[in-house]
Amino acid sequence: MKTDTKKGFGPSRREFLKTSTAAMAASGMGGLSAFVASPAFANGFAPGMTGGPTGFEGAERFQYNNTMSEGRAIEGIKALQAAGKAPKKISMLLTDGAIGQITKPFPDGAPSAKEVWEKETGIEIDIIGAPAEDIFKKVMQDVTTGDGTFDIYTGPWNSTGDLVSSGGAVNCSDFVAKYQPDWGDSERGTPTPEMEQLLYTYAGDYYSFSLDGDFQTWFYLKGIYEREDVQEAFMKETGHALTTPNTWEEVDRISEFFTGKDFGHGTMYGNGNLMSPFWGLATFYARFASMDFPNYHFFDEDGNPNLNSDLGIQCAEEHVRSFEWCPPDALTFTWAEAYAAMWNLQIPHTAIYTNLVKFGDGYNPDGTAKSKATGMIGSHLPVGRQFGDQINRRSVLYYHITAWISSKSDYPEAVYLFLQWLSSTRTYTWMAGNPGGYFDPMQQANFKEPLVASTYHDYAMETIPATIARSVPSINFAGQTALDNALDEEIQAAITGQKTAREAMDAAQKKWERIIKRQKRNGIVEAIQASRKTWPTIVDPA
Amino acid sequence: MSSIQINNVTKRFGDFTAVEDMCLDIEEGEFVALLGPSGCGKTTTMNMIAGLEDVTEGSILFDGQDLSGTKIQDRNIGFVFQNYAIFTHLSVYKNLSYGLEVKKVDKAEIDRRVKAMADRMSISHRLDQPASSLSVNEMQKLAIGRSAIVEPRIFLLDEPLSNLDAGFRAYMRAELKVLQHEFGQTMIYVTHDQIEAMSLADKIAIIDQGKLMQYGSPLEIYNNPANRFVANFVGSPRMNLIDGELREERGTLRLMVHGGAEIPLSGQVRSEFSSDTKVHSGSFGIRPQDIYFGARRAEDDIEMHGTVEVLERVGPKRLVYLQVLETMFLAIDDQDQLNVGDEVPFYMPPAKSLAFDLASGRRLGG
Amino acid sequence: MTDIPTPASQTTQSEKRKGYWATVARDGQKMGFWFILPTMLLLLFIVVFPLLMQLYLSVTWWTPLEGIPWYRAWEVFSWGENYWFLLTDPRLWGALWRTVVIMGIAVPIQFFLGMALAYLFVDKFPGRKIFYSIMLTPMMVVPAVVGLMFFLLFQGTGPVNDHLGLPADFSWLTDVNRAMISVIIADIWQWTPLMFLILLAGMLGVPSDQLLAARLLGGSNWQNFLKIVLPRMKTVIIIALVLRAVECFKIFDLIFIMTKGGPGVQTETISLFLYKQTFGELEWAYVAAIGLTILFVLSVIAAKGLSYMAKKNG
Amino acid sequence: MKVSPGALALKYVFVLLAAAVVLYPLLWMVTMAFKPYPEWTTVSGLTWFPKNPTLQNFEFIFYGEAEGLVVSLDRTIVGPLISSLVTSICGTLLAVVSGTLASYAVVRFGLAQSLPLSVLQLRLFPPLAVMIPVMVMWAFIGAVDTWWGLSLIYGIVTLPFAFWLMKTFFEEVPVEIEDAARVSGCSYWRVFYRITLPIVKPGLATCALFVFILNWSDYLLALLLTQKDWVTLPVYMATLTSAMGGQMYGMKAALGVIAAIPPVVFGLMIQKHLVRGLTFGALKQ
């Protein structure tokens, strides 16, 4: 993961300590070590607030009392502790790149989220890291053969179905009813109740705790699009003005145009979307979803795959064709390499995770630009297809770090309260601004927060929520891993020319049918039907 | 077939000198034995001839030609190892044909020569069998045959008979002699067994501690040992070698032996001892078969008296151990007249007695 | 050396030790039974239950996602479907093929390099001991660490590109073809020493006088090597090749650390495939079927090989 | 044997070349472990030896933080180091004790003649082909992520090596020595314990070191059977590799160096017997 080191080596630790100490001294907090035990701590709260981070300007926005989700969680813990039903320690299996968001102080002068929790509850949080691509393997290892090693698992949101049906996750519906988290808060939480359902529930019950915002969002090199010579060249070559695209057709036109061109930053490649195994599925799903109006589902009402339908094959053909405009080695890209491609001005646009701009646009503390693309990046709405005078813009929710409570945990309620605290809008907003990791914003409150805006940039503050509203879920029910892998293999075979798009889709269709058949008794058809209902129907005027 | 000249060859392994200033001339077609106790440098000498070891100083010439720059493969030297070094993973046939095959000799020619050689060594019936199935005796034949088949310029044999049982050893000894005549090749033969050397070789080189002690025909060496070492080493039973101080008393030269025995020297041996006046201690040598009992046969024969300690029968004769004070003489009794405990006079002819300087081991006079 | 206890001290000793154990100590067969017991128990422990469970799972389509515990897997009995499926699973055969490719490239190269090195080291030369120790080092390094080392070396900004004058975007571990090459290079680096070690032992076991005899007979070094040294080393060579082939078939650590089987499935070997099927796809029943098939096939090959060797040897 | 100077020179060229190839990755890792951040990549130029040697990489992995670095580590190397030591040693004890006893019974009492081949089969199969039931069993007996659970599987998988190695050592003990002792009245146990074991003591030590190396080198089993508390060094190293991002080469190298040292040292100590150990006693040096 190339990105995490970007944050790794800013100022030296000594310098860092110096500045934070200075900041704390200024706010009357004393040194870092004194800080935790300092009685002055309580005085740092805004009037009426009983908990939350302190010690920096604006800290009050993240503070809470027992009328708020976080406050209720802390109160709940206190009650559990009084009843002797709270652990000394909660252990959490977490994707490596996200750890810093919980353990690193942000902003200057602040404690870390972990410190705040431990101070307020006395329960230690023990975080064990694992690589993002592999973490669900480790989760399943613990579920199947483990011994209650972890209280909390994290992993891709898509895998919730697999985890639930393997009996690995705790059903939290009762806890949710009891402690009332603010996930679905109409002002601060998810934009719609459907979105809350999608992110936090499975088959009608609460299992997952959303800690990410992986709605693939479009970014482009505004600084290049707006150049006159580029505009002229595009007009000359395509007969169209170069604007941000609204449809996949326009995307492909732009991709084709930029491929092989050099506008002073080296050779460019038009297609910056992820095409590699695992990560590239998101690109395919997004294209697939808009094949019909208002949506083209992966399965029909009866749970039959749509892969080798005419539209499915057309989608696959377009997807395969777009590969010719990709940079070399694109098949090996994870998001990290794709980020780097944009930062190095190699690709004009990409639909990708939003922390692209968190790590690559703007300036480091020492004043150097985070990348060559600093100041050049813009963002636009997802693209779709034009049907009459309407466009069904669609993005896809894919990966999206999510936490679950291990069914082997001895203290599920206490663990639930920690996760409620962590994922509620105040704490999460505060963390989302933290450049220490890749939890991305997704709650409404996140996008109103200046700290988040400062790391994710103003231009994304409107497009990300708009993208969220237009996102369809990728496959998120039991059997997901198998379904995704089956399709993925076939798409890769088509991209690398081993099969035609039609052959690949036929093969994938067969594999999917086999999986569905086998999973039928586990209610996969019902799950498909439930998933279909969560698709957005919002369309935009052309 | 070639002659070999070994000129002032020295071989050192680090500080250890294995062979020192060795000179040997080996005539074409000669059968030479390198004889000496183990560790004397005879094998090193042979290895140098074969080219398995470098020469530190000096040179080895084959027909006047120095082969030190020639690879072992190209020297064309036949070598029979002590344990034969048979290629046990190959058949008997393949063993015999190896030297020809690697020289890319025509197939039919190989076949002819292998069969002829197998006949000659009488192992034809074993040709197709794995060499590992041969008896030791057959391996010996195979080893010789394998070397002979390539018609080497010389033939080196490293203790070839030492692994054989007694009966076959005697047979093989004779066989080797025949083979050598048949092949007509120069053969060099390393052994620590003097009987083998005496019975086989045209010439024997006796080596001790890396130095050449004597080089000559078996008879020469037997009758006329150049020094005390050779005298002691060659001959069975061993020569009596009595060491003592030389003392001139009342006109008689005596060898005063530690322990009190005295040998009054007379005749030829006396003059030999006195040929070098610097020599004060000497060694008196006489072969057991030259000592006789009974009536004195010549005027100046040396007379001694001793007690018969032990009698040991060897075939028709008996070995007699005669005790003279603390000195033991070994003699041969071929008339069965003596009994243990007898005190008898015995006689030693001066002409058959040898005189050595004790300090250097050098032969005096002769 | 040990002192041999006198009978006197012995009797007093054994008189003190009464009961069952005293009789065991005096009965070779009984004592042997107790000596073998721990090993037998460990073997049974690791063989019997796992085999039965594997057999059972392999005829179902149970996965941990099934929502029922594994012992109730009969509810999803599937006859031989897994076995049928594995015959036509391109990913499995792809993984098998890549495993064979790695074996087919790495093992012969290791063999030839090992043989060449053994040839260099068979005669004494000054410094031989030190160089010998150096040559052995790679095989003693933890395979995971070897993976790490080559991970470091093959970074775009790493020394290999730097020393070869290649640009930093010349990727090794993420390139479709070069990833495989990188993995093979690492495997060769680590395991050539094993070949070297075994082959050298074999080469030193060739009687030196036979080699001398062959030379004196006029055979060139190469001829003698082919006709004398090689045939004599046959057993050793077979041992070395079999050992390496078996280990190479199991290769996991190195690849898992260097490429995780990637890019795509470009370096996915049978072990990585099984790992991913187990924890990724969670197809436990399928993995059980593949596992049993591998067990069966390898056992047959091993048995055939052993009986062949036995026939050869006597 | 005659060796011409030219041939000798050529030999040295090859030997040095081979040594260079062997040392290249090792040396790179070792020097990398002592390099400070700016010297890690081509970005600021690579050198073989650190321009400003530093111990901060080691400091970092042992203390979780180091002078001059903002990043910190939640879990230091200490736990995994202890875990590796404990499980390797216990696994070695189990394998060597049971292997020694069993091989003695096979060699001396002629028992269970099929045992040698059966244990050998354990080494034939890819562990992943048989791991699912093993993991289920381990979970059932509560052995996952415990020191004894890992030691147990280590003991089992290295048992074949211990068994075969000790078998060759016992075969070298002349049976006459034992017979002599037994004739003088020793029990079988006493013969084994007082006569044979002391004779094979050097073999036993070799065997223990050899098996220890194998256990220490394991990655896969620890990956499958530990989660958190008893994660071993290689597993820790691998997770850290990605945890620290693609570029924290210095710390990774430091970790690698620490993990590599014990087996290399022990391996060189038992160099003489490596062939025997690795070929299950089929070859000796």
Explain this structure.
The complex is a heterotetramer of chains A (542), B (366), C (314) and D (285). Chain A has 542 residues and is mostly helical. Helix content of chain A is 44%, strand content 10%. Chain A has two domains: 70-212 and 400-469, D-Maltodextrin-Binding Protein, domain 2 (3-Layer(aba) Sandwich), CATH 3.40.190; 217-397 and 473-541, Periplasmic binding protein-like II (D-Maltodextrin-Binding Protein, domain 2, 3-Layer(aba) Sandwich), CATH 3.40.190. Chain A has a three-stranded antiparallel β-sheet. Chain A has a three-stranded antiparallel β-sheet with strand order 8-7-9. In chain A, α5 (69-82) packs antiparallel against α19, α15 (281-289) packs across α16 (310-322) and α24 packs antiparallel against α25. The longest helix of chain A is centred in the last third of the chain and has 19 residues, at 501-519. Chain B is an alpha+beta fold and 366 residues long. Chain B folds into two domains: 4-86 and 134-233, P-loop containing nucleotide triphosphate hydrolases (Rossmann fold, 3-Layer(aba) Sandwich); 240-357, OB fold (Dihydrolipoamide Acetyltransferase, E2P) (Beta Barrel), CATH 2.40.50.140. The two termini of chain B are 36 Å apart. In chain C, α14 (270-281) runs antiparallel to α15. Chain C is 73% helix and 0% strand. Chain D is globular and about 75 Å long. Helix content of chain D is 68%, strand content 0%. In chain D, α6 runs antiparallel to α9 (201-217) and α11 runs antiparallel to α12 (249-269). The model of chain D has no long low-confidence stretch (mean pLDDT 86). The chains are: A mainly alpha (542), B alpha+beta (366), C mainly alpha (314), D mainly alpha (285). Chains C and D meet through α1, α2, α3, α5 and α6 of C and α1, α3, α4, α5 and α6 of D.
Secondary structure elements and pairings:
The complex is a heterotetramer of chains A (542), B (366), C (314) and D (285).
Chain A (H helix, E strand, L loop, with lengths): L3 H5 L4 H14 L5 H6 L2 H4 L25 H14 L6 E7 L3 H5 L9 H9 L2 E7 L4 H11 L6 E5 L3 H6 L7 H7 L13 H8 E2 L2 E2 L1 E3 L6 E5 H4 L2 H11 L9 H11 L22 H9 L20 H13 L12 H9 L5 E4 L2 H6 L16 E4 L5 E2 L2 E2 L3 E3 L3 E5 L6 H12 L1 H9 L10 H4 L2 H7 L1 H12 L1 E3 L6 H16 L5 H19 L4 H10 L6 E2 L1
Parallel strand pairs in A: 1-2, 12-14
Antiparallel strand pairs in A: 3-13, 4-5, 6-13, 7-8, 7-9, 10-11, 11-15
Helix pairs in contact in A: 5-19, 15-16, 20-22, 24-25
Chain B lengths: L3 E10 L2 E11 L4 E5 L6 H9 L6 E6 L2 E2 L10 E4 L11 H10 L5 H14 L15 H13 L5 E5 L7 H18 L2 E6 L2 H7 L2 E6 L2 E6 L1 H6 L4 H6 L6 E10 L2 E6 L4 E4 L1 H7 L7 E6 L5 E2 L8 E13 L2 E8 L2 E7 L9 E6 L5 E4 L9
Parallel strand pairs in B: 3-8, 3-9, 6-7, 7-8
Antiparallel strand pairs in B: 1-2, 1-4, 4-5, 9-10, 11-12, 11-14, 12-13, 14-20, 15-19, 16-17, 16-19, 17-18
Chain C lengths: L6 H10 L2 H8 L1 H31 L22 H7 L2 H32 L6 H13 L2 H11 L5 H6 L13 H27 L3 H9 L4 H12 L1 H16 L3 H6 L11 H12 L2 H30 L1
Helix pairs in contact in C: 2-3, 3-15, 4-15, 5-9, 5-12, 5-14, 6-9, 7-9, 9-12, 10-11, 14-15
